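Assess this:
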Amino acid sequence: MDVLQREIEKGVQILRKGGVIAFPTDTVYGLGADAFNASAVERVYEIKDRPKHQGLPLLIADVEQLTSLAEPIPEMAWFFVRRFWPGGLTLVLSRKDLLPAHLASGPTIAVRMPSHPVCLALIKGLGTPITGTSANISGQPAALTADEVERQLQGRIDLVINGGKCPGGKESTIVDASHEPPTVLRQGAIPWHDIDKAYKEYLEAK
């Protein structure tokens, strides 16, 4: 077993115990906790100095997990899923009514399926979605390397998995797909015009 695999297994164990870890994704380093552990999610807010009214995006490892978080999921959203997942698109969708309040206090939830193998292995190992907010202090630059994470969050988190520099270099693009037309809330890894082009293709295919 190589060093990285051991770190992933250690990370899964920490997540299961309610810990908070940092890990590489295909965009930037993420700050992960078990999404269904309220006290762990609370720690993520404290670590980042993030305002409580700002919901945390969730990372999933397969499309089936999306249906446990969001409802209804519009056809347009499924079109974006097929086009951009796994990858750098975070979708904002109507949340399922039964989701605990600590996951989403408002009517929507933000979800992404990344393509980075370390990130996916953590989610699969834990068996539930994990938080996927950037591993930095709110308002500070997103971290692209493990060293940058440690400079900002040293002593605040339980583990940093060093998976090298993140290939994306930008945070994910956030699109509100809970209504039509979709709204780009943050432009990031996927350019706005790619979202617009996909939406036009979706309309033509209807």
